[in-house]
Each structure stands twice: as structure tokens, then as C-alpha cells.
Write a structure and sequence with these properties.
Radius of gyration: 26 Å
Strand content: 25-35%
Distance between the termini: 19 Å
Number of helices: 10
Largest sheet: 9 strands, mixed
Number of domains: 3
CATH topology of the largest domain: D-Maltodextrin-Binding Protein, domain 2
Order of helices and strands: EHEEEHEHEHEHEEHEHEHEHEEHE
Structural class: alpha/beta
Helix content: 25-40%
Strand order of the largest sheet: 4-1-5-11-6-10-7-9-8
CATH superfamily of the largest domain: Periplasmic binding protein-like II
Length: about 350
């Protein structure tokens, strides 16, 4: 294969080997070992020559993908959406990016929050009261354009968008550029404290459980979007056959590792005289695909089956016990590092 894929490698928590779902270990298991990444860069793929690591902030990857500076980016869905909205709302520019695969990591919720003391339970009801009291609405968020789009949609639902059409996105408590409308203060963290202390009317925050919000005396009035770490591309690269093939290989190997994270192989021997008994048990519990993987000898048969470790209906411990009851011997449990059903699991 010829060519090269430029991969946006996200700095921050995703680069921390103890956080972010251990992205560095995932890449390594997929066959894309990188040096330098977890220590701050520069990142270099040491086992392949067709990937180029571009270290950066996921907040910037949407723009970099749009202009072709990156072919592929590993980023939270929320940051891609934030950049898309910024370009649309501030620069009247539409970008087309494609979320091509989830990495099943970094799941968060982006939520609208108000003070718990407010009687309203929805943003629509809260804005109905607030728009009677104020000509300038103040919002705080680390993701100002997601916040702006959310507020504008809510105002539209209650018939007030035209009255609050001006907007300004600014750093927290910088002099307001507008006298009426919506001012979004972009924060660098601790959004909750700013609302609790009266620094803004309401806000948009990134959360998982919402426990920190409760500690600050705040409540969620709407879940705006959910987000997780995903692979994003500029769909233009799909027109380049060489890059498309490299992308397919990259995604297949990542998929295989993610798909294997809850799987093990059970390898065991059974006397030939009890092989039918074992196979009936395997069939009854759907413990094979098309047919059991089986190697027959003179007196024994060896079986290999793949088992999900998080199946609450049929626990791994019970499967092992029942296999032994049906005659299994020398039962080994082997980790699965990659499991790829076929090429079609990744399609464009």
C-alpha cells in the first residue's frame, strides 16, 4: 500500500495512560504502537510507516479536518460539533465531516443547567420567565457554540428568538459587545461555580454522573447531546483509493480490539465419546457461530469457543463449570486481543 494517513492525536486526558480509556494501549493492541504520545509528543508510529501522528487539541481537530490538514482525527463528538457550529454561526461556513467509528470511550453528557432554587424544570419554562425580566441573557460554557445553538433553539420554541437574535461569544466577564440578546461567556473550567455565585443566568456543562452539579446547587434542565471518543474523517479522503484502503485497515484493526475487550477464548479437550454431549450444550447456549471450532484426534477432540465475559445471563464462571461437568478437560482461558468477524464490519 502506498500513501499516508495523517492522524490527529488528541492531547489532554486521552493521552494520559491512566485516563481516557487508555487510548495509547488501544492503539498498541491494534498494531499501531506509538512512541512519544503519552509523554507529550511528538508522536511517532513505530510499527507502521503509513500513519503520521499530528499532536493537537481535539478542540481544533474539526477545523483541521475541514481544511484537509488532517485526514483522520481521534476526538470527542462534542468538540467536533463545537467547531462545526462555530464555523457556521461566526463565519457562515458549513463543513462536512463524518463520524466513522466510536471507540466506546470517554462517554459524557452535555447538559443545560440552572440554579436548583429556580422553580422551573425545563429550559423553555425558565426562559419564559427570564425573557420577561432581562434583555441580555448571560450563559457560561466551555463549549460556547453548542450552548448558543441550544439557547437559540429554546428561544425559537417559545417564540422569542427574534427578540434575542444578537449574540456574542466572549471570554468570561470581558466587556459585553452587545446590550441585548445572548452573551455566551467561554469558560476554562468550573462553569458550575460561576452560576452558583451569580456570574451568569445559566450554563452548559460537560458531565458524567451529574454529582458535581448537585454539589454546587444546580440542576439539569435538558440533556443537549451525548458524546464519546470517536474516529472522525473528512469524507474527501474516501475519493483517494490509496487513503481509503489505509483507512479501512486502520479502522478494522481498531474495531477488532474494541470488539475483543469483553471476550476470551475457552480451549478444552473432551473424550470423543462425549463430544456429542458437549456440542449439544454449546448449541443450546449459542456458544459458537456457524459451527464449533473442533480438532478431532484418536481419543479426544479439542474445542475452541469464544465467550463474552460480561454476559449476565450466562456467566463465564458458570460456562466453565458446566463444560467441566459435560466432560471438558484441560480447560484454558485465553485472552482475546482482537476479534474481527469479517471485512464488512467497516463499510463506507
Amino acid at each position: 500500500m502506498n500513501g499516508e494517513l495523517r492522524i490527529g492525536m488528541p492531547a489532554g486526558s486521552l493521552a494520559n495512560p491512566n485516563r481516557g480509556g487508555n487510548l495509547i494501549k488501544l492503539l498498541e493492541r491494534a498494531g499501531f504502537e506509538a512512541s512519544g504520545y503519552e509523554s507529550g509528543g511528538p508522536s511517532r508510529f513505530t510499527t507502521v510507516d503509513f500513519l503520521y501522528g499530528w499532536d493537537g487539541r481535539p478542540q481544533e481537530f474539526g477545523s483541521q479536518l475541514a481544511i484537509g490538514e488532517l485526514d483522520v482525527a481521534i476526538a470527542g463528538d462534542d468538540w467536533i460539533e463545537e467547531r462545526r457550529l462555530e464555523l457556521e454561526l461566526e463565519y457562515n461556513t458549513t463543513i462536512q465531516l463524518t463520524r466513522i467509528m466510536s471507540l466506546s470511550r470517554g462517554g459524557v453528557r452535555i447538559v443545560g443547567i440552572i440554579a436548583n432554587a429556580c422553580p422551573e424544570q425545563s429550559i423553555d419554562d425558565y426562559l419564559r420567565r427570564l425573557t420577561k425580566e432581562k434583555e441580555l441573557l448571560t450563559v457560561v460554557s466551555e463549549m460556547p457554540y453548542i450552548a448558543l445553538e441550544w439557547v437559540r433553539k429554546a428561544l425559537q420554541r417559545i417564540g422569542k428568538l427574534e427578540d434575542y437574535s444578537p449574540f456574542a461569544v466572549q471570554k468570561y466577564k470581558s466587556p459585553s459587545r452587545i446590550d441585548s440578546g445572548i452573551i455566551i461567556y467561554e469558560t476554562w473550567g468550573k462553569t458550575e461555580a460561576k452560576i452558583t455565585n451569580g456570574g451568569a443566568d445559566f450554563g452548559v456543562e460537560i458531565t458524567q454522573s451529574g454529582s458535581a452539579l448537585k454539589s454546587y446547587g444546580l440542576k439539569i434542565v435538558e440533556e443537549i447531546i451525548t458524546s464519546e471518543t470517536s474516529i472522525w474523517i473528512n469524507p474527501v479522503i474516501l475519493k483517494d483509493n490509496a487513503k481509503k484502503e489505509l483507512l479501512h485497515m486502520f479502522l478494522l484493526n481498531l474495531y477488532g480490539c474494541i470488539n475483543a475487550e469483553n471476550k476470551v477464548l475457552l480451549v478444552f479437550n473432551v473424550k470423543s465419546s462425549r463430544s456429542q454431549e458437549i456440542e449439544e450444550y454449546l448449541k443450546k447456549n449459542q456458544l459458537f457461530g456457524n459451527e464449533p471450532t473442533k480438532t478431532s484426534g484418536d481419543e479426544y477432540c479439542e474445542y475452541t469457543i469464544q465467550v463474552e465475559t460480561d454476559n449476565h445471563d450466562l456467566a463465564l464462571a458458570r460456562i466453565r463449570y458446566e463444560l467441566l461437568k459435560h466432560g471438558a478437560q484441560n480447560l484454558d482461558t485465553v485472552p482475546v486481543h482482537s476479534s474481527i468477524p469479517d471485512l464488512s464490519v467497516i463499510s463506507f
